[in-house]
Amino acid sequence: MILVYDYMANGTLHDHLYKMKKPSLSWTRRLTICIGAARGLHYLHTGSKHSIIHHDVKRRVDQIIDPYVQGKIDPTSLRTFTDMARKCLGEKGSERPTMGEVLWNLEQAWLQQQQNDCFQNDGNYG
């Protein structure tokens, strides 16, 4: 099986997170991207009839948080997100969560962030 990717005219996720010339991504958008990546990896590991070889997707935890973030992230959402990221970096496979667990936890963090964004937009968050 060969994966073919569309051309991404807006650049990479790395560009948006780390390069000053790219617009900053909201935390809701970041969580949406993470959930999409988790769903894709979950499919690669469990949903395909054939074995799929892919490159290692690990990243350092300190790269998750952008020092130029404008806006707020819900503390509960951030805690869920960073705890899951740390667990995914376990040395032994038996220490790491399944992709289903990662997906569920990221979806919970995303829902929490959406609720927080609604409060901010209503002016009721404080």
TrEMBL record:
<dbReference type="InterPro" id="IPR011009">
    <property type="entry name" value="Kinase-like_dom_sf"/>
</dbReference>
<dbReference type="InterPro" id="IPR001245">
    <property type="entry name" value="Ser-Thr/Tyr_kinase_cat_dom"/>
</dbReference>
<dbReference type="GO" id="GO:0009506">
    <property type="term" value="C:plasmodesma"/>
</dbReference>
<feature type="domain" description="Protein kinase">
    <location>
        <begin position="1"/>
        <end position="126"/>
    </location>
</feature>
<dbReference type="GO" id="GO:0004714">
    <property type="term" value="F:transmembrane receptor protein tyrosine kinase activity"/>
</dbReference>
<dbReference type="InterPro" id="IPR000719">
    <property type="entry name" value="Prot_kinase_dom"/>
</dbReference>
<dbReference type="GO" id="GO:0005524">
    <property type="term" value="F:ATP binding"/>
</dbReference>
<dbReference type="Pfam" id="PF07714">
    <property type="entry name" value="PK_Tyr_Ser-Thr"/>
</dbReference>
<dbReference type="GO" id="GO:0005886">
    <property type="term" value="C:plasma membrane"/>
</dbReference>
<protein>
    <recommendedName>
        <fullName>Protein kinase domain-containing protein</fullName>
    </recommendedName>
</protein>
<dbReference type="InterPro" id="IPR045272">
    <property type="entry name" value="ANXUR1/2-like"/>
</dbReference>
